[in-house]
Here is the input.
Amino acid sequence: MALEELIARGGELMLIGMGVVFAFLALLVLTVHLVSLTIRRLEARHHPQSDRAVPDDGAPEPEVIAAIAAALKCHRLHQDGY
Here is the structure.
């Protein structure tokens, strides 16, 4: 075989290999996208939106404020002991 033939066959093999890898990766991306859409739709069916109202003013609930205050008090008491 001549050098030109070897180079031509090498280039052909390279292009075929790159095409196969590209096709596989494109198929993989498409599959992951479809699985993601399917999971989102299934989760939406099984987990309907809750009827619980969320405060519009953005203020935390009194229970959350009490829990934070208790945690700060506990932290400060333990920190003073060092």
Q: What stands out?
A: The radius of gyration is 31 Å. The chain is about 75% helix and 0% strand. The chain has a mean pLDDT of 89. Residues 3-46 form the longest helix (44 residues).
